[in-house]
Input
Amino acid sequence: MIRYAADVVDILPSQLPGFFEGWPNPPSSETHLRLLQSSSHVVIALADSHQVVGFVTAISDGVLSAYVPFLEVLPSHRGRGIGQELIRRVLVQLRDIYSINLHCDPELRSFYEHLGMRSLGGMAIRNYENQSGAHAV
Ligand SMILES: CC(C)(COP(=O)(O)OP(=O)(O)OC[C@H]1O[C@@H](n2cnc3c(N)ncnc32)[C@H](O)[C@@H]1OP(=O)(O)O)[C@@H](O)C(=O)NCCC(=O)NCCS
Output
């Protein structure tokens, strides 16, 4: 059974293993928790074991715009509708916001289109030396 929560007040770093799949220099669980705490909006999916098995974050000015930087479900829990549910829930949190944006690989466009989003152009910089977030203040 999966439970969803819209805050991380009771979450410990030890409940956050296994995320950032494929990242050469992933953030630690402590940094991951800081990322969740610092986001203006968050939804986590919790398994019976109290492990976090999925999360989505958003950063918003609270007026007109929001960006969804992270969505991830642990490989062991994919294909069960958790990713879809996380996005649905964060979009409900952002329902009063005009412009909601995210970047994704082309193969994920249909995933987001099913959730009411449409494809627009985007630009980005990646400072790979900062990928672990270890030096962020
Ligand atoms: C993308 C991701 C969050 C999807 O999570 P999930 O819990 O497996 O997704 P769901 O079970 O809710 O899938 C919903 C639908 O999207 C489809 N889908 C899921 N992942 C997909 C993928 N990588 N490519 C294409 N379609 C995908 C599913 O087939 C499903 O379709 P259906 O309802 O017709 O069966 C997950 O694969 C993941 O964490 N990937 C690595 C991180 C990532 O790419 N994040 C997105 C950053 S933009």
Observations:
- The longest strand covers residues 52-60.
- The mean pLDDT is 97.
- Residues 21, 71-73, 78-84, 102, 104, 107-108, 111 surround coenzyme A (CB under 6 Å).
